[in-house]
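Reading is simple: each integer encodes one residue's backbone shape. The lines below illustrate:
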Amino acid sequence: MAGGDLEEDSPCPLTDTVINYCISNVSTFCDVDSDGKPVRIRDDAYLPSIICDRMVSTLSKQGAANDDMVRVFCDPSKTKLQRVNLSQSPITNESIHNLSNHKLVELDVSNCALLTEDCLRDILTQKNLQVLNISGCSRVLQKYGFPLFDFPLQKLRSLNIGFIELSATQLHLLLQHLPRLTSVDLSKVIKNGDLACLNIVKDTLKSLVIHDCVLVAASLEYIYQLSALRHLDISVNDQEKLPLTNEILKQMVKSLPCLSSLDISGNTMVYDDDEEDQPDSGFRPKKGKHSDKKQRKVERMQVDKSFGDRKDEDDTETSPINEHGVRSSLEGLRGLTAPLQFLGLLGMEECELEYLPAVRVTGLANEEQILNVIDVYHQRRDFLLKGLNAYFDLLRVIECFKPVWATKVILVAMKRYPKDNQVQISGSASLYHLTRGLYKKHMSIHLKQQIIIVLLTAIENITESVTLLRNCGLTLFNFSIPGDFQFQFERVVKNLVKLALTEDRDGLLQRIYVHMCNSIVCHVEGDQKKLVGKLGIVRCMLQLISDRLEKEVCDEVLETAWSTLWNVTDETSENCEMFLDGNGMNYFLQCRSTFQENPELLRNMMGLIGNVAEVQRLRPQLLAHADVFIDLLSDRSDGIEVSYNAAGTLSHILSDGPEAWTIDRPTRGEVLLAIIKAIDSWTMDTKRNINYRSFEPILRLLPVYHTPEVQYWAVWALANLCTVLPNKYCNLLEKEGGLDRLKAMRDNPRTSEEVKRLIKVTLDLAIGKKMRDVLDV
């Protein structure tokens, strides 16, 4: 699949970027208290509606909207709110009261579970309100009509009271006060099929949503009277399905001439015996009241199963097209004068028909239908989950053409249901595939950051689901570490540390997150390396090592834990000290004794010890184990790695002078002889499994003339590294002033002949490399 076949992600709009920055730094527009919490809008600030509305909406989407935050926006002399979206926020009646200071045009407090019937009076003071969404607020209308009978929102045009328990009497009374409504959502409110309450708005209603309501055949007669209707939603999820026939659909099309959006998802198409005599379109069963599965299977073979554009061929003999040019394989919709803008067919086999008369279709027949499901039904959890699961199944078997769109709609779904395990598992599983390979290349930095935020939120909200934690870990591993995480570095590290200690049956969780910890510390330096230590990575790795010792298990996690400690202590004395204070040397000795047959483990451990030895104030603690290090000088289980690091550790200890050697055994002289013997046994061109970012710890040993053996190890190390990787290490040596220091040693009469020989080898390599670079230029 060519890269050009995929849609590109556009950059985040500047306004959104500014608003997100201000929300993350509230002092830009608020006075804050000692804890950094916003108190009031600053005296020199004024937020117009176009900014203020979007700020509140963004806070709500980020889960940061609450009573304290809404209180900040309640001063109409500093802020102006018109269109307020606080959906799913933990606000109380207090926020609704504070909003009464503003003249609102739109108010969405859907699924705000803490609102009670006492907030209704404040809502009803909003005389300019045109749009009101209190869907899912089960208590707000609880006492409506008992005794409150008025609903004085004369300008209201759109009302959503879905998923609220209302009696038929309450509903009739409410709608009687709102004769100008053009849009109403009564999802799951109608229990007996009685739609007589709509008579008051039959001439004005343009949008009717009666999703998951109990409907009967008589209900349709009321719907047919809504001649101005443009959008009709009679989809069902867990209610009894409404048996639809082609005749019913024909009557809808005839009675509702303005209809441009129809959702019949979840219902059942019934094909009557009488239809057998109708012209055969080749797209419906010929017999039986219900679809015959075998017949359907044959019919599916006739449709275009590709996931690209539909067929454009015009076969005049079989093409179901009407006089208006509308092509429909669904006979009941052939009377349309223009294609629908939307057609909902989720859960219906009709979504697999070849010609569907709509710009957008929801179903499970192809990529676009499935993404429409996720996009359109993000407020309907069960429908949404069907789409998420179907898209994951699709991603595993084909290359998809809408990865950016898919990512965006999946993120919306996961943000809306942050604590829903099934939504998070399904969404994160798809994000794993969408953040790999070619798909990843088409995502903006902003989109990548949104993915990371959603995954971190999932990790923090749902801690008991091993499947989810695996999905999130594997997906995070698809990003560039640590570059893509810098914008929320501390949050990432804290979660990695927590999850690295989370056990599951096959140990995959720990393997994922320990490797991520190692990747993080491999690529940070300076203050960030100190920070990861403070955030607990050193303690975490020591805990993992302790657990493995207790179980006597040497596995990938144990090796990686030691590797992580090796990397996190590199030129970071604070982390070296944490290692020692955390009983690190005892763990070192126990691992060496318990897991003697693992040379890679020993190499990692000795690399770490070498880092500790570079810190002068910590060397006395290592001196107590000099007998272990001298024994390791002769170790060849992993080439020269262990021997090299043991010699380096002893060299750093010896560099402190004879007076610092405070132990009786082994003697300092014995150690010096053992180091010379070990170095002489090494081969100069031996390749190393080590990565020096700086030579400074080695260069510090060059002037140690009181102990030539120390100089011998240091210069051998430089000569070896420059021999094996001249392009990298010759440049590093010159950059850090190493050439001048080596020349000074070469000219010093106190330098031994053997050390001078190694200096010459190193200088020849470095100078030769430099000359070659000049000639290449």
